[in-house]
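Fold it.
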Amino acid sequence: MSIPSARPAAATGAGGASHPAGPATGAGGASHPAGPAVLAFDVGGTDMKVGLVRGGLSAASHAVTDLQRHPTPLDGERSGETVCARIAELARDYQARHADTHIAAVGVTVPGIVDEANGIGVYSANLGWRDFPFTQTLTGALGLPVAFGHDVSMAGEAEFRIGAAVGKSDVLVLVIGTGIAGAVLCDGHRVAGGGYAGEIGHAMVPSPDGGLAILESLGSAGAIARRYAESGGRPVDGARDVLALAGAGDATARQVWDDAVNALAFSVAQCVSILGTETVVLGGGLSMAGPALFEPLAARIDALLSFHRRPRLVRALLGENAGLIGSALKARSLAAGGSR
């Protein structure tokens, strides 16, 4: 499959200047010892992050070198081709900028439904592709081994291996932001489900009106802000504002927040009952609420369980680069002779 020319040349900020997502090192910056490395990509609906990872990855050491952020080059049904073209272009740029570094493999994560075993992006509603052969296309373009995976699944794998869930076997990782996505690990292994496991944001939960609704329509940060405005409250910038209003005695804000907690607790309790989940890692913007989220959520989960063990709720440790680090972990495993 041929790869067309990439669309955007670089990420731009104020004044049109190209900018990295973090402090860039390497070419023209601090020197690094030569040695094997992996190049990791985390493709999102708006932008894509890329960075080099040298040496081993652990809880104490997971630095990403020359971390950059670039617009995701979308082109409808051809977005698979344009994304791969941009990845190939950036990979060549990194190889030139870090000529002293041997890049042993490339890791790529994307959203949507993903067939990791066959390297296929099955479907992405936001990015437009369907059944696109990412691994085949990128391996041919780069001449390097390519490890391919789902963005949130790889973030969950990273939290499990070197982050907040190290040493645990039965884990649910929830990323709660504009929507809700998850990764499920049972008996120390991530559940793939043919690419469909972890879509907890679309699991049905009891709705405040007595019916059913998908979890992210009640429990996501985006839903909290939207539902408050729709319930007669003033427009707010986000869930943080709703929480502040609830703390100040706004009854509508308190009800919207409680509805979100109840919906999240229901889904977590279901996982505990069915899968034996012992640790729940909460990431994304809503996790920044801290005790205002964790304490009522733990209490509500407790009320929904009977003889089951109560899960421990912990904050994600790896932050917004968890998907990128997970991509690097999978690429490093592949370079060492593991599976794709």
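The first helix runs from residue 79 to 97.
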